[in-house]
Amino acid sequence: LMMNEKIRKKLKLPLEKVPYNLKDFGNTSCASIPLLMTTNIRKSLNSNNLEIVLCAFGVGLSWASAYLKLDNIVCSELIEL
User: What is the 3-state secondary structure (H, E, C) of the chain?
Assistant: First the structure.
């Protein structure tokens, strides 16, 4: 969260543009972005045409980014087992 907040502030992005779910699920490694999409922004994904940027970084300075154009995709609710 500290690193994410530092980057968000450096890029001058408003808080609503950088959603988190760390408080609910902790660090979920490679599942963090899909989990966030199904829990925090599912309604927006289901009902809007969106352009979003996904960015992630991890241990060993691994990182990845993706730019997506989405057109009313279907994103199911989270099913916990």
Answer: CHHHHHHHHHCCCCHHHCCCCHHHHCCCHHHHHHHHHHHCCHHHHHHCEEEEEEEEECHHHCEEEEEEEEECCCCCCCCCC
Q: Output the pTM of the full model.
A: 0.68
Q: What is the pLDDT along the chain (81 residues), one digit of tens a residue?
A: 888 889 899 999 999 888 888 888 888 887 888 888 888 888 888 877 888 898 888 777 888 899 999 887 888 888 888
User: Do the beta carbons of residue 51 and residue 67 sit within 8 Å?
Assistant: yes
Distance of CA 54 to the CA centre of its chain: 6
What type of residue is 44? S
Q: Which of 24, 56, 57, 59 is closest to 40 using CA atoms?
A: 24
Our CA dihedral for 78, 41, 33, 80, rounded to 10 degrees, sits at -10
